[in-house]
Amino acid sequence: MAFDPRALSALDFPRVRDALAERCATSLGTERARVLIPSDDAGRIARELDEVEDALFGVSLSLGGIQDIRDLHARAQEGRVLSGQELLNAAYSLDGAMTVKRAIGANSRGPLREVALGLGDHTELVRRVLGALDREGGVRDDASAHLRDLRKRIEPLRSRIRDRLANTLEQWSDVLQEHLVTIRRDRYVLPVQASRVGQVQGIIVDASATGQTYFVEPAAVTQLNNELTRLILDEEAEVRRILTELSGLLAQDADVPMTLSTIGELDLIASKARLARDWHLNRPEPSPAGAYDLREARHPLIERPVPNDIRLGDTQLLLITGPNMGGKTATLKTLGLAVLMHQCGLYVSAASAKLPVVQDVLVDIGDEQSIEASLSTFASHLKHLRYVLRHASPDTLVLVDELGSGTDPNEGAALSQAIIETLLSQDARGIVTSHLSPLKLFALETPGLKNASMGFDLETLTPTYVLQVGQPGRSYALAIAQRMGLPDGVLGRAEALLGPDAGIMERMLEGLERERADLAAQLETTAQARQSAEAELGRVRQERETLEGRRGEMLAEAAQKAESLYADAIERVRTLRARAQEDGARPRVMQELRELRTAAQKIRPAPPVREERGDPIRVGSKVDVPAYNASGQVLELRGDDLVVQLGVMKVGVKRRDVRVQPEVKVPVARGSFVGRTATTFQPELQLRGLGVEEAVEELRTAILEAAALKEKQLRVVHGKGQGVLRRLLREYLKNDRKVESFHDAEPNQGGHGVTIVNLRA
């Protein structure tokens, strides 16, 4: 679908075209820039934006010197013979195109390589033309053997003729007008006075404009001049033959039109990149959902524009009200121009932009109105609005400036409301500007329609040009009139005519605007405080992470030291075992084993802290909650969610975010041998009530001591229960090399609750 040309004109798009054309390096690119129109093909738009990005950050395209040789190619195809200069221009242009192709191949990120496929290979044509012509377009002597031979003969013959005539100058000096040899009609002659021409034997070749001088070819050089003329004619024929041949080569090169078209396309792409750089434009992103989101959008053709955020999504239509000269129309055009530029494959004037692809931009803008065909301003508005209403849809952007103007305010407001309702029912999106107060109230009550205004400084009575969404605008007519210098008497009379009640809504809006400004200041202060708090929180968290990391290092270091000490203790046990073989050493060895065992238990590294993710959590379980750096009791279970009492506070946490505290058990005679003393050994080990890790550690130590003392058997009391401890202890016994065998005790001595361990000798 073609975009309405009136919309392009109303939105100042021709000025963007002009800016592009000024940045083109070739007439081929300029021609494309002048006729650039938006596309509604999303794939093409994305591809063109990729090409501009490649030109910005990948390839620097240098297209200067490449000329539009389409006319030369067409004339050559018609069979015409081109001049040497024309052929030279064609060769230089095609050679430049091939240079561009090589540069793109070496530097492109990809998109421009696809475009460069349209650049043909003109190597043979360029070689032949540059080999036959000099820099001025003349045919070189070595363009052909015949031409070289002719020119070798012509120059000596010219010298002979000049020398022969020079020798006769003295002879004819009294009849010559000037004492020199000259050329007329490609023949060497002497300038003879008209009154004495009969005294010279020869042929009159030409005469001066005044008739005072005749140019005479003396008979002595006639034959030589004839020979020179013949050679010159042969030379001209050979030159024409060469130019005809080169023109034919150009005519036969079928890739020339595509190459020239591609050069124009590349030049336009390079121009788009230069425009993006010069105007500080950014690449827009697609918005498939049909929403518009421009951040810090600027009108690119306004000097020092004020950036504004423009968003349309849930809000279908934005109703901007407020004073003239406040920036309403500029804001409307900013959005329209961004859409047109995006769909022409151009970057847009915004810090960031997300834009949909529309099929048309429908406008009714004051700048576009005229009174042609005897139409009034209001009738002209209606003509454009009729077109807008007929074509408005979710796939179009609607931009209406000063809706309802040019007629009675009451009727204008009613008609404007009906038009807006129709646009909303058609799911159209866009911006509408107006002065009509009833529309402000209508916007407050209508879904999909939102009030907006342009900021106005109440102190200086000047517009700020800042778009304020959600805030209806005021006209400030009297304030602006005062600023523009209208007489005080006129202003006073106007205020009197308005009466005390006429400005109630205006005063309410003024109050709202002041409150909004105060609220904005408070929000800014709050935002700054929040940023400071977040920064402080981040610093504290960083310090905590650093301390946690250091704590881990210290624990690891301590564990390593404990392991070393424990290894030393094991080595001492081996030594004591050897000493136990000595007579009388047993009591002393037992005492040292007791002391060593106590010390070993103290230095044995504790098992690493684990999150007890697999342990059952029940109501009443004691848990640690690291996120709150506190401990508490489980009150409720809700699947993966827990409710935990932390002091006076109840918190909800995930099961994975807590650690179960080990249950406090009644102290048992930990690892003690029943009835043993510092000098006696009773081989019964009580493990009932211990955890698995504690029980295994006690068993391992007891076996170590018994083996050191050459004991043959241990009685391990673990209890029956569910048999878990019995099974895990026996798993350990299977892998201890000091154990010969093990079995249950006799039924009358404990049965399954006791394991008898036989030790190796």
TrEMBL record:
BP-aspect Gene Ontology terms: mismatch repair; negative regulation of DNA recombination; rescue of stalled ribosome
Ranges of Basic and acidic residues composition bias in the record: 536-551
Nuclease in keyword set: yes
Binding site for ATP: 322-329
Coiled-coil blocks: none
GO molecular function, one term: endonuclease activity
Region (Disordered): 526-551
Keywords: ATP-binding, DNA-binding, Endonuclease, Hydrolase, Nuclease, Nucleotide-binding, RNA-binding, rRNA-binding
Domain Smr: 685-760
EC number: 3.1.-.-, 3.6.4.-
Described purpose of this protein according to its UniProt entry: Endonuclease that is involved in the suppression of homologous recombination and thus may have a key role in the control of bacterial genetic diversity.
Subunit (UniProt): Homodimer. Binds to stalled ribosomes, contacting rRNA.
Record family assignment: Belongs to the DNA mismatch repair MutS family. MutS2 subfamily.
Protein name per Swiss-Prot or TrEMBL: Endonuclease MutS2
